[in-house]
Write a structure and sequence with these properties.
Number of domains: 1
Largest sheet: none
Number of strands: 0
CATH class: Mainly Alpha
Distance between the termini: 62 Å
Structural class: mainly alpha
CATH topology: Four Helix Bundle (Hemerythrin (Met), subunit A)
Shape: elongated
Helix content: 55-70%
CATH architecture: Up-down Bundle
Radius of gyration: 20 Å
Length: 209
């Protein structure tokens, strides 16, 4: 018998899916079919994540079925024991909580980066943006999304989301490269020069002023 059951909070699942899904939708604003498909991959990722975070701890349940008492978990349905890496490595509850806070911090950085990129793009009204955060990285909104999902994996890794994450990153990488080809057609040599000077996702340490 377990001492507590900290799951079946489906309202929290729905709330977080709508919150994060709506936030990303608001910043990326998909219009074309392939953009919607990529957003669909992200939606599947956060549904899987929050279902295990608040709905049912499938990952820990599967691991307990395979390894049983070897995991050293006395109450698998206590929420803090649902943290995959912390439980596998036998981390105490306080360390699991610190790891979760670290994940939240990485997510916050991602949100800030996405916001900075969004403001510059919308203020440009169709012109090529090469200043601000765009002087350091060509795709700050996707970089922000990458950091948000990495923060989610730090905060609450699961078997399903660990498998899905590389697929999600590849989908957005392809989308970014497709968008670059379209922008190149519009701005031509100006964009080619910019692309040669500024990295796609990993920012330069010192941006040009």
């Amino acid at each position: 018998m377990h001492e507590s059951y900290d799951y079946s909070l489906w309202i929290m699942v729905i709330f977080n899916v709508v919150l994060f899904g709506g936030f990303v939708f608001g910043f990326l604003r998909p219009k074309k079919k392939y953009e919607w498909r990529t957003l669909g991959v992200f939606a599947a990722f956060i549904v899987a994540l929050f279902t295990e975070m608040y709905g049912f701890p499938l990952t820990i349940y599967v691991l307990l079925s395979l390894f049983g008492s070897k995991l050293g978990v006395t109450d698998p349905f206590q929420h803090v024991n649902g943290h995959l890496l912390g439980t596998l490595f036998g981390a105490p509850a306080w360390l699991k909580l610190i790891i979760c806070q670290l994940g939240g911090f990485v997510m916050l950085i991602g949100l800030i980066i996405m916001g900075k990129g969004w403001r510059l793009i919308h203020a440009a009204k169709g012109e090529l943006v090469t200043t601000g955060i765009y002087a350091s990285v060509r795709h700050p909104q996707y970089l922000g999304l990458f950091l948000i999902t990495i923060g989610m994996l730090i905060q609450w890794p699961t078997i399903i989301t660990l498998v899905m994450w590389p697929i999600l990153m590849y989908a957005y990488y392809r989308l970014a490269m497709r968008e670059e080809r379209e922008v190149e057609k519009i701005f031509g040599e100006e964009y080619l020069t910019y692309r040669q000077q500024v990295p796609a996702f990993i920012p330069k340490i010192l941006a040009k002023k």
